[in-house]
Structures are given as structure tokens and as C-alpha cells.
Amino acid sequence: MERIYGLLGRRLGHSWSVPIHKALGCESYRLIELEPEGLGDFLRREDIGGLNVTIPYKRDVMQFCDVLDPAARSIGSVNTLVRRGGKLYGYNTDIDGFLYMLRRADISLAGKKTVILGSGGASLTAQAAARQEGAREIVVVSRTGEIQYENLPERHPDAEALVNTTPVGMYPRCGVSPVDLDLFPALTGVLDVVYNPLRTALLLEARERGLPCSCGLPMLVAQAVRAETAWGFSSVVAALSR
Question: Alpha carbon of 151 to those of 65, 108, 162, 213: distances in Å?
């Protein structure tokens, strides 16, 4: 039986996952766009080999998993699925990618007030990483929560680290920033999980101010390596050594 490998989401025109995973050894990797009503039937397929999961399904897929990795259960978000022995396993490899992105950008969250834009699956991963890194305070911003974009500058002008986990600024809606960095003079680092384009409007603002910053591409590649390992592709090591 030919196994299905790919990225599961709703709108995937922005994705770079196919060339990344093919470079890591998964030649059959493809994009799988589904509407919400088709999610359950698809995830019950026995020919699933391994899937990455993106917006808006990182939490929705959890109900279909037979086994959840402790990290995925703790975070409350799944971005990697594996069909093994007739059971569907859920993992979170995003946190590995997020921590790699932090270190590569030389950004520390330890002791920092960390503001996270967005409340979806990527936000849950960022929150877990911030806790793991010892952030002094974690502020989650959403359109409907207690802290919203309108009152954020007034309530938390002393933010020291900023993480965008929303799709604001992503292709094809480039040139838009979720916040004005001038309103946060204490910032020491900015992270944007968006990777297409590599330099979002938010990151261009950060660079103009001389702030350490990173797009989401390092996170995407690092989590992909972990996902391929979970799927059992031995060629990952060979690809990384080239």
C-alpha cells in the first residue's frame, strides 16, 4: 500500500513544505487541502504514513489521535501525525523548531515579559516554549480575549520579547504588520512564525530598530527534521550531512 505523506491544512498556497521534505528524503510529500467537514474521514484512512498539520487544524486533529505524545498533550496542539500499527499518533515537533529558531536568532526569553500575538495552535507552542525558557510573564493577545490589539500598548508597553503566531503579513497579504513596534520601547527581540515572505513588515520594523529577529523558516525546517524522524525516514541523517 502506498502511504500518504504531506501537509494537512485548509489553504496551503503559501507553503514551502514540499521542497523541504523532499530534500529530507520524503519524495511523495504533498499538500493536502481539506475543508473542516472532510477532516475526520481523511484521518481515518489506513494508508496515512505521516502528516504535518497546519492552520486551522492543529487542535482539531487531536480528537482523532489514538495516542498523544506527552509534549503534544501538554501543549494542547498537534502538528505531526504518524499511522503506526493501525493507530494514529500525534506529536508536537513545532516546539523543537521554535526553540531552535530562538537559539539561532540569539534571542533569550529568560526573565522577559513575552507578548505572543495570536491564540491558535502555534500560540500554544510558543507559550509552552516561553514557559520552558523561563519567561517572567507571558501575555497572549487575541481579537476576543482580555488582552486585545487595541489595548495591548496601553496594558503592556514594557514588553521585552514579541512573538507573532498569526498569519498577518503572510503571502499574499504582504506588507501588513500586526503591531507598531514604536509602541514597545523595551523590546529586545522579535520572532515571526510566518516564513513567506522571509522578511515580513513586522521583521522589517525590527531590523530597522536593530533588534534581533527571525522569520519562521528555521522553525519550519527544524520541525520538519523531527517529523521525518518520527516517520522513520533514515535518509534524514544523510540529507543533513550533505
Answer: 38, 26, 16, 24
CA 196, distance to chain mean position in Å, is: 13
CA–CA separation, 111 and 152 (whole Å): 20
Instruction: Identify which of 176, 216, 178, 173 has the alpha carbon closest to the alpha carbon of residue 194.
Output: 216
Q: Is 97 exposed, middle or buried (0-12, 13-18, 19+ CB in 10 A)?
A: buried
Task: Name the residue among 161, 166, 93 with its Cα closest to residue 133.
Answer: 161
Q: Is the pTM of this model over 0.85?
A: yes
Catalytic residues: 58
Mode of pairing for the β-strands spanning 48-53 and 67-68: unpaired
- Alpha helices by DSSP H, 105-215: 121-132, 152-155, 201-208
- Give φ, ψ of 162 to 5 degrees: -130, 130
- For residues 107 and 161, the answer to whether their CB atoms sit within 8 Å is yes
pLDDT digits (tens, 9 = 90+) for 119-155: 998 999 999 999 999 999 999 999 988 999 999 999 9
Q: What is the pLDDT of residues 62-106, one digit of tens each?
A: 999 999 999 999 999 999 999 999 999 999 999 999 999 999 999
Question: Partners of 82 in the beta sheet?
Answer: 50, 89
Cell numbers at residue 240, please? 543533513
CA proximity to 117, closest of 91, 94, 138: 138
User: What does the pLDDT read at residue 232?
Assistant: 87
- 3-class state of residue 143 by DSSP: coil
